[in-house]
C-alpha cells in the first residue's frame, strides 16, 4: 500500500509533466514524468537501484500489459513507438552488458522500448545530449509520449485511491 504522501507526490509530478506551458519544453515534461515514474517504480519494486527498477518494470510490472493493450488498440501510440524504432539505434552514454546501443527490433517488445526510453533518459540526465539538438529533442518527445501513455493508468489508479 502506498503511503499517502508518496502517492500525492507521484501524482503531482505526473500532472506537472502533462501541463506544458510556453516555457515547458520536451525535456521539462520528460524530466517531470521520469521523477513520477521513477518514484512509483522504486516503491512498487522495492528496489533502490535504477537498473533493477527498470528490469522489474520491463518484466513484472502491470505496465507490460498496458503497453501490449496500447500497441494493439491505440494507433497514435503505435505510430509513436514505430517512430522511435525508426530512430534506433540510440547510442548509450556508456556501455551496458557489452551493448553500446539500444535498438527496437519489434514495436511489440516492451522490454526493448522501455530500454530505449531509459537510454534516452540516461543520455539526457548524464550530459550526453544537448537540449538544442533536434534528434535529442525528438527522441525525448517520443519517450515522453510513449511513457506518459503507458504510465497514465497507474496515475489514475493512484489518484483515485489518494484519499
Description:
- With 163 residues, the protein is mostly helical.
- The chain has one domain.
- It has helices at residues 4-18, 26-45, 50-60, 63-73, 75-86, 110-125, 134-160, and strands at residues 90-96, 99-102.
- It has a two-stranded antiparallel ribbon with strand order 1-2.
- α6 (110-125) crosses α7.
- The mean pLDDT is 90.
Task: Give a quick precis of the structure.
With 163 residues, the chain is mainly α.
Number of E-state strands: 2
Oligomer: single chain
- Radius of gyration in whole Å, from Cα? 15 Å
Count up the helices.
7
- Number of structurally distinct domains: 1
Helix content: 55-70%
Q: What is the mean predicted local confidence, pLDDT? A: 90
Q: Note the beta-strand portion.
A: 5-15%
Alpha-beta content class: mainly alpha
Coarse morphology: globular
Largest sheet composition: 2 strands, antiparallel
Poorly predicted segments: none
| Spatial order of strands in the largest sheet | 1-2
Secondary structure: elements and pairs:
Layout: H1 4-18, H2 26-45, H3 50-60, H4 63-73, H5 75-86, E1 90-96, E2 99-102, H6 110-125, H7 134-160
Antiparallel strand pairs: 1-2
Helix pairs in contact: 1-2, 1-7, 2-3, 2-7, 3-6, 4-5, 4-7, 5-7, 6-7
Amino acid at each position: 500500500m502506498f503511503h499517502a504522501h508518496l502517492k500525492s507526490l507521484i501524482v503531482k509530478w505526473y500532472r506537472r509533466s502533462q501541463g506544458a506551458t510556453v516555457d515547458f519544453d520536451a525535456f521539462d515534461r520528460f524530466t517531470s514524468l521520469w521523477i513520477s515514474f521513477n518514484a512509483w517504480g522504486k516503491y512498487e519494486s522495492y528496489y533502490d537501484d535504477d537498473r533493477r527498477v527498470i528490469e522489474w518494470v520491463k518484466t513484472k510490472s502491470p505496465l507490460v500489459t498496458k503497453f501490449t493493450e496500447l500497441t494493439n488498440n491505440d494507433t497514435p501510440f503505435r505510430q509513436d513507438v514505430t517512430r522511435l524504432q525508426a530512430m534506433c539505434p540510440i547510442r548509450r552514454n556508456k556501455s551496458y552488458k557489452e551493448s553500446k546501443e539500444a535498438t527496437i527490433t519489434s514495436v511489440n517488445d516492451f522490454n526493448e522500448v522501455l530500454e530505449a526510453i531509459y537510454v534516452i533518459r540516461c543520455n539526457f540526465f548524464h550530459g550526453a545530449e544537448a537540449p538544442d539538438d533536434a534528434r535529442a529533442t525528438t527522441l525525448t518527445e517520443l519517450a515522453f509520449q510513449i511513457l506518459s501513455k503507458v504510465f497514465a493508468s497507474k496515475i489514475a489508479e493512484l489518484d483515485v485511491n489518494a484519499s
